[in-house]
Design brief:
By secondary structure, the chain is mainly alpha-helical. It has 8 helices and 2 strands. It has helices spanning 2-17, 21-28, 51-62, 78-81, 84-96, 101-112, 120-139, 142-175; strands spanning 65-67, 73-75. The chain has a two-stranded antiparallel sheet. The longest helix is centred in the C-terminal third of the chain and has 34 residues, at 142-175. This is Family with sequence similarity 180 member A.
Length: 176
């Protein structure tokens, strides 16, 4: 009986360890694979592909976001909101990033257990989740404020850990 259990655990571990990298990435933000929009261009949306995209994301964040009572995030600036990239930003913020404390705890746990560095899209989504938690912490009071602040700090630590892994990986590649 014990050997059967041990064999089953080893098989499970081996199967889990050999999953393709794409599967592991999808688990961080599973909702990115099923965005609730009709266009195929919004399946697994990514904002930042060029430096201009990074600048535009910065403009979206500085252009004052509005978060409604039902937690829908919108860009207040009408000119920015009318851009094509704003549709992807809207999909990321409203359909992909987690907005519940439990969803953010799950994300934090997976980020801390992630053995490698984050893909660009996962890093982007984690930063957007961090922005959302900062907003919620600022708007909350008492115990809720502490919970959101803790979530923010944990996301920060996960991103810092990822950056340290990236810099270590890139410096070891340069010396090779």
């Amino acid at each position: 009986m014990r050997w059967n259990t041990m064999l089953l655990l080893l098989l499970y571990y081996n199967a889990h360890a050999t999953l393709p990298p794409r599967w592991n990435r999808a688990m961080l933000f599973p909702s990115a694979q099923r965005v609730k929009r009709s266009t195929a261009a919004l399946l697994n949306p990514v904002l930042q592909k060029t430096q201009d995209d990074v600048d535009l994301l910065f403009e979206f964040l500085l252009g004052e976001l509005e978060i409604s009572d039902d937690l829908k995030i919108t860009v207040k600036d009408e000119e920015l909101a009318s851009m094509r990239k704003a549709v992807k930003f809207d999909a990321l913020c409203n359909d992909v990033i987690p907005k519940s404390v439990t969803g953010i705890y799950r994300l934090n746990s997976q980020l801390m257990n992630n053995p490698g560095t984050l893909k660009k899209e996962d890093y982007e989504r984690t930063v957007l989740t961090m922005v959302y938690t900062a907003y919620r912490a600022a708007r909350s009071q008492g115990h809720q404020k502490d919970i959101w602040a803790e979530s923010f700090v944990n996301l920060y630590k996960a991103l810092k850990h990822d950056l340290m892994l990236s810099s270590h990986t890139s410096s070891s590649q340069r010396t090779s």
